[in-house]
Write a structure and sequence with these properties.
Layout lengths: L2 H82 L10 H8 L1
Length: about 100
């Protein structure tokens, strides 16, 4: 083989290796971009879940506040009923309850 053919084969081999390296690099970059996209989707889903959880928490707090107000209203109505009821003494105890406690 003469040296020209050896040089041509070496250059061809180097070009093939360079193309292989370029293809590998391109594939790796594509995989990296796919992972970035997947991570972005996971972050968006996590953000949506966090927003939903926050909304549920706020709704629960509002419902708890409504329940507290209703309990306060019920207690106020009980006190008003006790004030009006002739069978309840100043301590808020019904006269017939006192009789049962004494027995």
């Amino acid at each position: 083989m003469d040296t020209t053919w050896i040089i041509v084969l070496v250059v061809a081999a180097l070009i093939v290796l360079a193309l292989i390296a370029l293809a590998v690099r391109s594939r790796n970059e594509a995989q990296r971009e796919e992972r970035r996209e997947e991570a972005r989707q996971h972050r968006e889903e996590a953000d949506a879940t966090a927003r939903h959880a926050e909304q549920a928490r706020l709704e629960a707090e509002e419902q708890a506040e409504r329940a507290r107000r209703q309990e306060e209203e019920a207690e106020a109505l009980r006190r008003q009923a006790d004030e009006v009821d002739p069978d309840v003494d100043a301590d808020g105890v019904r006269d017939d309850e006192e009789v049962e406690v004494r027995r």
